[in-house]
Amino acid sequence: MFGVMLVTFLLVRMLPGDPALLMLGNTATPDSIAALRERLGLDRSIWEQFIAYMGNVLHGDLGVSLFTSNPVTVDLMERAPATLELITYAMILTVIVGVTLAVLSVVHRGGIVDRFSQVYGLAAGAIPDFWVGLLLIFFLFYLAGAVPAPFGRIDAMVSAPPGVTGFYTIDSLIAGDWTAFQSSAGRLLLPVLTLTIVNAGALMKMTKTSFNDIWRSDFIRHQRASGLSQRAIVRSALRNSLPPVITLVGFLFGFLLGAAVLVETIFAWGGLGQYAVQAVINSDYPALQGFVLVAAGFILIVYLVVDILYELADPRIKV
Amino acid sequence: MASLRSLLPYLRRHPAALAGLVLLTLQVAAIVFAPVLSTHSPVEADPLSSLQPPSLEHWFGTDVSGMDIYSRIIHATRINLLISISAVALALALGVPMGLLIGYYRGIVSSLMMRLFDFIQSFPVFVLGMALVSVMGQEIWNVAIVLAVLFTPMFARLIRAEVLSLRERPFISAARCSGATDFSIMFQHILPNALTPAIVQVSISIGMAILLTAGLSFIGAGVRMPTPEWGLMVSSGAQQMILGVWWVSLFPGLAIVLSVLCFALLGDAVKDLSDPTTRTRQ
Amino acid sequence: MTAPDSHAPDSSVLLDVEKLRVAFGDRTVLSDVSFTLRRDEVLGIVGETGAGKSVLARALIDLLPEGGRITGGDVRLSGRSVPSMTPREKRELRGGRIALIGTNAKALLDPVEKVGAQVARVLRAHKGGSRRGAWKAAVDLFARVGIVDPERRAHAYPHELSGGMAQRVVIAMAMIAEPQIVLADDATLGLDATIQVQVLDLLVKRCRDLGLGAVIITHDLGVVANYCDRIAIMRDGRIVELKPAGRFLEKPEAQYSAVLLDAARVRPTPMGAFGTAASAPPKPLLEVEKLEKSFPVGNGKLVRAVDGISFSVAAGETLALVGESGSGKTTAGQCLVRLLDSDGGRILFDGTDTTTLSERGFRPLRRRIQMVFQEPYVALNPRWPVEDLIAEPLGLSPGMDRAARARRVRELLDMVRLPASLAAAYPHQLTAGEQKRIGIARALATGPDFVVFDEPTTALDIRVRAQIIDLVRDLQRDMGLSALFITHDLNSVRSLAHYVAVMRNGKIVEHGETETIFARPAEDYTKALLAAELPIEQSEAQRTRALSRHAMAQA
Amino acid sequence: QNAKSTLVVAGPRTPESLDQEYPPTEAVHELRRNVYERLLAYAPKKGEDGVTYEDFGKIVGALAESWEVGPDMKSITFHLRKGVKSAAGNELNADAVMWSFERGWNLKANFHWYMTQILKITSFESAFSKVDDYTVKVSIPNSSPLIERLWINSDLGMLDAVEIRKHVTADDPWAQRWLATNSASFGPYRVTKYSPGQEIVYEANPDYYRGAPKLKRVIFREMPTSANRVAALQAGSVDVAEYLLPRELVLLEKMPNVKVNKVFGNYIHRVEMNNDTPPFNDVRVRQALNYLVPRDDILKAVYFNTARPTRSPISEIYPGFTDQYFTYTTDVEKAKSLLAEAGFPDGFKTELGYRTGDQLEEEMAVILKSAFARAGVDITLSKLPASTLVERYSKGTIPMYFFRDMAIVPDAAYVANLWLNSASLINYSHFKSDEVDKLIDQALISTDEPKRLEGMKRVQQITVENAPWVFLVNPGYQVATRSNLGGYSWYTPNGNAWFDWTKN
Ligand SMILES: Nc1ncnc2c1ncn2[C@@H]1O[C@H](COP(=O)(O)OP(=O)(O)OP(=O)(O)O)[C@@H](O)[C@H]1O
Ligand SMILES: Nc1ncnc2c1ncn2[C@@H]1O[C@H](COP(=O)(O)OP(=O)(O)OP(=O)(O)O)[C@@H](O)[C@H]1O
Ligand SMILES: [Mg+2]
Ligand SMILES: [Mg+2]
């Protein structure tokens, strides 16, 4: 984690653009620039800046965003639920779609699902997510008018439900606010669909590979020769392909966090991804540092959870 | 690798591989004959004919600056493939020797390198790419270098994993017994065997590179206007999409899809061809 | 067919196979296979790799691998045609009335499920009943198939079991639904001889006790001779001969059968007949003293793979190292050629202690000490053509030009009796026997003084095995090689080794001249090892049984 | 009821800070217009288009009920309105005003800049004094024609000192931390919720001195992409969409339930050249580029006639503006011969910077690239994050860049001083003409209005001839609303004043 901090700090610090100048804009005077630089600590040596930064991070202080003037921690906390809600639903849908297609296409090899999955598997990996998002907007919003306006997490006229989990859908249910629930669920539809369409293909392909290996393995054949029912065999094969699928899902989570950057931008989601893009565009060092740290931390946690689940799913790993 | 003669019947049996080859040919043609194939200048703005829908004059319509989308797509093939292929080539050139060395010699340096790779890879690729490109400046070569930096760990890890498993294989012991030196074990025995998965990965990576380049350009961290580049073109129509102007983003997006698809198909074919067990079973 | 009872539709016939044909695509792999199986009968099917044995077994339960179809003939179970059953009936048939036991039991078990549950699952699939009841039945059966501490073992996962134990679980799985017929397809392949005997004894005994019909498919004529009532010899998808075991062993009819039987019976020409006389003990070429090697296994523990062994081999002599799987034979051999660094003891080769040499210092000696690896295919770089593979060790003898090398490669091919045309082939284009020969040619390329042969004959077909033994014996004689001969196969030891050392758990438990040991084994372990070797003769019990059955059938 | 009195606004950006001393940005200008109240104001005047404008010729009191300008325009005395209450309920008095001055002076930002650069004040003590509880006097060293008008500037609002002082701490004597995210003034609204990057909510100040605002609550949502703002307006999920692209406005004008308010304001959008560095140190090169610009195409294809061509460095609506010296047409031949004279018969290569996310600049950049190419001038387009662009042009390391700005004081000399005086910090194009400098300096202290205007005419002539910029367009200001909104008004900082608006 120290490494993560050092590298992000250096990397982000190399971004071009003097934030002090930008903040002051056209009416800047040398005096005010100097004052602001001093306030932001930009006048000290890079090592001093880093050490100060380290100390702050350890206290949970990621600095103050140059743009929102808010502590980065606050900004990130505010935006994290948006991103988490998005990628959690995308994740769930992706896994359901991906695994179901994979299993169906392996079990009914050569069937319609199998053929569809082959085409889809190839295509899905080739489609840029931002393009899918745009097409969905065009078809479902512009042409069909089937979905609410594709930006933001909730209709501007509807007020957000009181925060409990930070997930609007869940919070609005907790609050019993049906309008808010409908609005936020409707808004989730397109971005979640975008992420699912793009990522379910890859998940399906990889699940298919591992499920296929298992499906053709000796012990499955033996189970068939022992007269077990198809259902029992599928269940057993699925249980065996769980460990690789868990690993994949872990990767996917990390990947979705990256994909969220583009998708959030398109759908004006106001989550971490969009925050990161704005941070880059505005040379907002602390914000970008904060984001990168949080992203890395998040992924580390996901991997940790994956390892634990993996162990639970595969008795061979236990020591 | 397959000789040419065995390639033809293979293609006949595998329409997907054939499709990949056709797409590749189309792209090569677009690269070589771009000036002949295009109907307009790819960078000439014609403000008065902006956002025209597809017509006989402008096959794929025009974008917001009145540039001909069809001609831009054709010319963009050069840029996109140039970036992607050189990025992957660079990554391959760096990653393969690295992977070979850290797989073969295990020590502190190797495990440090692995930590570094873990580290690079633990970031969302896209975010890292975005940050790196903005650090280095929006030049075509910088995009390629950044992509190479992102892909190098992938190749190095892939090769390392192969090396780790290969070095335990009996034929390596047998070679050592036959007096092979470390050098010849590494380069004559291990490398050729480890390369196959890397070559398959090359194809996939080119596809990934195309997608990443496009994504970077899409958020404005890639190449600069008015360079004909697919992602940039999609992005220039992104705003219009919600207002019903579909052609500006649709066509370059399709170009991306077809191009990535092409490399995916070729990758599958290469995997197929280089695996002796699947080949003999045909 | 020669069997007198082949046509009669009598009630004791469980399985009736008639002119069965199976094809993969347009390639026919089984043609006109016919036989019957009666209650309380054990039928052995023998044939070389690719003869169609496994396809036959699977055709019997109509569960062919993808792409395979029954193109003619019929399989009738108690008069009902199997291929025309409904899917549901087939499911009930499989495991319920005909159980199949395959090779490599560990791979047949679901790796993430407790073995007890797996067996119980099969019972419930056929007989229904409660989970708890099925579990109890499984545990009971575990006890009866010789699993000690069945309750605890039932809770184990497959990877926690040894190969033999796993094979017993699979047998229990096959037996639990009380089928009428058991098919065992190479069920004991890869198990140690001692274990193989235990497993087969158990399997056949249970079949006999319950009066089941059994089909034992194997490569090993010893197995059929000792366990089967009738023998079918298969070749290229046909049954070339089918008759009671005793009659077959006495007088095979088909020419192929005779060749097979001959090859399997390669009786050792005692070494004394051609080897250097063991009279005046010559100066040892290789001396091993208290050699030790351990491997760390997880949580800080050590496996003492080689635990202080000592032996010596004189010039022109061959020492055989025998012992069950995991006893440390390969490890010992690899220490000699410095593929592994030993942890203790000394290895004196021609007076030099190789354990103290650096890798670089040892390199000149490599020319003189070579090794032939256990598995032929994986020991060859799949991307190198044969000529490069054979030429590689020639790099150890400096100063050879291209032409000289090419000449030497041809010589070597000739020496291992391979056609020169194979020089350009790649390993995967060769048969296992050819691959083994390439391995031998590589080892001999530099004209070494000492060669470690690691299991040169295991995993080979009967005829190929005989050929390799012949080849090695000729080479020993012609070149005056000293060799360490590592093997499971006691038959070949007698043909090839002057001395035998018996290893167990990393230690040498018995050491002596080959004939002496075979004739008068001193240690119990050696005795057990020798007893597990199945002679290709019908045992006394088998013979009487066969006679009585024959009488019954006549009656 | 609720819907009638609540306004939902979609804009590209929430204000970066609520502090009066934060540098003025577009979002900040709007915030200040609604939250901070000034001492003086221009009288409102109804335009022919129904929009309320400022009458630059008539100043009225705001927080100051009346005022006197001293002889020679060297001092001004403000008599504060009595009974004015801040949003927090504190009363306006001389102490509040003095504290506002003191804070501004000490923080050395906006206030300080106006006082020192425009009014040339050098010492706080000698300039600002409290006369009595409701009277404050400002004295300046030299006479200034701006001494009255300056106080209308929206950067010079008066703070609710009582409220702000509650949040003063030892290390933050001016409560900068608190004021960055809170508001405290005498304006029509106060901020009740501030989530930068997401939204800001204004709540009416019932005690506002001009009466309680009709719209009780204004919710401003950040939607960075303009197309999204369009769609939101169309779908009725917002009432107002700010800063839309002209193309989108054309589309919206055709829609029922939506209307577009358009004014021609004070914005100038231009490409500045670094006049110091070759090839732009040659006036002929600068002129040549001006001859290459296809202004009509840009107006039609980019601005859809919501803009007018720039024909002077002074805003077209400000007193003193003249376009009589402007002669540049689209004339490639003329440009080529000028370039040839300057020694670039085959053109040259250079770089043009524009801001990330600015669609209009990107479109114009692409058009300019093609247009300049006609005379062999090859420009590389650099899309740069705003901060980088600012950094590069302020350091003079980029040869050409887009620049869009407005001067909020409607005075030609003030505008010229800002952009054309060689001493000005924001004269990034490094334009230098001794005559211009002299005329500006005179005009800044002269009180002879006709002479000032005469001088400014000359300034415009010299500037147009010297072409320090590539003159492009004056884009105007537009805001699209649902059609049930009325009362639109326009002020020089361009931000919308919600107080004036009505909703039916
Ligand atoms: N899935 C399959 N597809 C195509 N051909 C097959 C398949 N399985 C078996 N065969 C062919 O059928 C023939 C018989 O194979 P089978 O596995 O029955 O041999 P076997 O006698 O069991 O050999 P072994 O002793 O090696 O197990 C072989 O020629 C093999 O190539
Ligand atoms: N690289 C290794 N790491 C850990 N344990 C090892 C390793 N190689 C061998 N062993 C262990 O050392 C013991 C001896 O192995 P070895 O391969 O020498 O047996 P073997 O007698 O050759 O058996 P087989 O007849 O099966 O070839 C076994 O318990 C094995 O598990
Ligand atoms: Mg078989
Ligand atoms: Mg071994």
Report the span from N to C terminus of chain D: 11 Å
The dominant shape of chain D is globular
The coarse overall form of chain C would be globular
Ions, cofactors, ligands: which are bound? adenosine-5'-triphosphate, magnesium ion
Give the biggest beta sheet of chain D. 7 strands, mixed
Write down how many β-strands of chain C occur, each being a DSSP E stretch of 2 or more residues. Answer: 20
Helix content of chain C: 25-40%
Q: Most extensive interface: pair and counts?
A: A-B, 46 and 44 residues
Low-confidence regions of chain D: none
Question: How many beta-strand elements of chain D?
Answer: 21
Please state the structural category of chain D: alpha+beta
Q: Per DSSP, what share of the residues of chain C sits in E-state strands of 2 or more residues?
A: 25-35%
Number of helices of chain C: 21
Assembly state of the chains shown: heterotetramer
Largest sheet, spatial ordering of strands of chain D: 8-9-10-1-11-19-12
pLDDT below 50 for ≥5 consecutive residues: which ranges of chain C?
Answer: 1-8, 272-278
Radius of gyration of chain D: 23 Å
InterPro entries (chain B): BP-dependent_transpt_permease, MetI-like, MetI-like_sf, OppC_N
Protein name (chain B): ABC transporter permease
Keywords (chain B): Cell membrane, Membrane, Peptide transport, Plasmid, Protein transport, Transmembrane, Transmembrane helix, Transport
Subcellular location (chain B): Cell membrane
Explain this structure.
The complex is a heterotetramer of chains A (319), B (282), C (555) and D (504). Chain A is mainly α. Helix content of chain A is 75%, strand content 0%. Chain A contains 13 helices and no strands. Chain A is globular. The model of chain A has no long low-confidence stretch (mean pLDDT 80). Chain B is mostly helical. Chain B contains twelve helices and no strands. Chain B is elongated. The longest helix of chain C is centred in the middle third of the chain and has 18 residues, at 193-210. Chain C is globular. With 504 residues, chain D is an alpha+beta fold. Chain D has a seven-stranded mixed beta sheet, sandwiched between helices. A six-stranded mixed beta sheet of chain D has the order 14-18-13-17-15-16. Chain D has a four-stranded antiparallel beta sheet with strand order 4-5-7-6. Chain D starts with a helix and ends with a strand. The mean pLDDT of chain D is 90. Classes of the chains: A mainly alpha (319), B mainly alpha (282), C alpha/beta (555), D alpha+beta (504). Chain A binds chain B through residues 3-4, 7, 11-12, 14-16, 122-123, 125-131, 134-135, 137-138, 141-143, 150, 254-255, 257-259, 261-262, 265-266, 276-277, 280-281, 288, 291-292, 295-296, 299-300, 303, and chain B through 16, 115, 119, 122-127, 130-132, 134-135, 137, 207, 211, 214-215, 218-221, 231, 234-235, 237-238, 241-244, 246, 249-250, 253, 256-261, 264-265. The complex binds adenosine-5'-triphosphate (2 copies) and magnesium ion (MG) (2 copies). Residues 24, 29, 47, 49-55, 65, 67, 186, 219 of chain C line the site of one adenosine-5'-triphosphate.
